[in-house]
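#help-structures
NK: newbie question, is this the right format to request a structure? protein is ELAV-like protein
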Amino acid sequence: KTNLIVNYLPQNMTQEELKSLFGSIGEIESCKLVRDKITGQSLGYGFVNYVDPKDAEKAINTLNGLRLQTKTIKVSYARPSSASIRDANLYVSGLPKTMTQKELEQLFSQYGRIITSRILVDQVTGVSRGVGFIRFDKRIEAEEAIKGLNGQKPPGATEPITVKFANNPSQKTNQAILSQLYHSPNRRYPAPLAQQAQRFRFPPMTIDGMTSLAGINIPGHAGTGWCIFVYNLAPDADESILWQMFGPFGAVTNVKVIRDFNTNKCKGFGFVTMTNYDEAAMAIASLNGYRLGDRVLQVSFKTNKTHK
């Protein structure tokens, strides 16, 4: 009861970020982000093994359903690895360009429990390439799906689809396709940042520093990302509140609530580290002046002591 599987991770999340996220709950024995054997790209899921079963249970209660970037992650107990669950990944081609990931899952879900699914999109246009992947819980379910759907026309399709097992490491032919997978344009904020910022009542302290995107004189940039200072938290605030507030804006790598050494109560402030500058700025613009309970939060880039 200490080993967890985490599904639907953002494509660009690293193993270190996964470990940092789950390490905020308790001590981790091991952590593994599962990557494609050929391309090294993340397959969007991983395993976290805690030292203490109580922490594993707490991680499920705290982090299951958390939004990270555009994904809602799923955290559950992992099952022991066995031959029955290996090689259950399918490659599907000839899909209608209009088919969504949800429709793809609906088509395949009749054959078993789907662990992850995705549709490849063109990097430039964002249009589907008509190719996708479905990973089933068990290999036998994947076999049934091939029998049931290979060569069939899905609803609304003019051409039959091809369904087969995804590449073995020996087949390098899919490498080019796989490398296209991960660069889909995922911009959630279509308007320019300055325009977005005008919608908010409280101008964040460093929004004027945004022009220097090279990060030279913008405060808050640590080697691992952008550090955000959150002030006026309640004494009972904990890390999960920060994850829930900042998670929707982008990749959060670390959160920390500063506690009183004697009482273990929050001293009123905390820090959040985010990978991407635009997303961090957006979070600040949205959450500075945010009312949490009976308190109004102050949110800004963490400044160096010398920076006024």
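mod (FA): yep, format's fine, and the tokens are attached above. The first strand starts at residue 3 and ends at 7.
NK: thank you!
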